[in-house]
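New here. Your pick:
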Amino acid sequence: MLDRFGIVGLLGVVLLIGGIGAATWQNPVIGGALALVVAGLGLIVYGLISNLLQAFGMGEMM
């Protein structure tokens, strides 16, 4: 399933893991860690949607 994410989706997963790791490392980093988690979710969604549109032949729309 990871191969369907594409490069942007994989980058999103890396940001998610980095955000969660930073949140558990120290408490003062929680704000930055949550920002990474939100950015990672956004990149995952973008990667999934763009690959879905390409599968339907509408890849030029994004």
Remarks:
- DSSP finds two helices and no strands in the chain.
- The mean pLDDT is 79.
- Residues 2-55 form one domain.
- The CA atoms of residues 50 and 62 lie 7 Å apart.
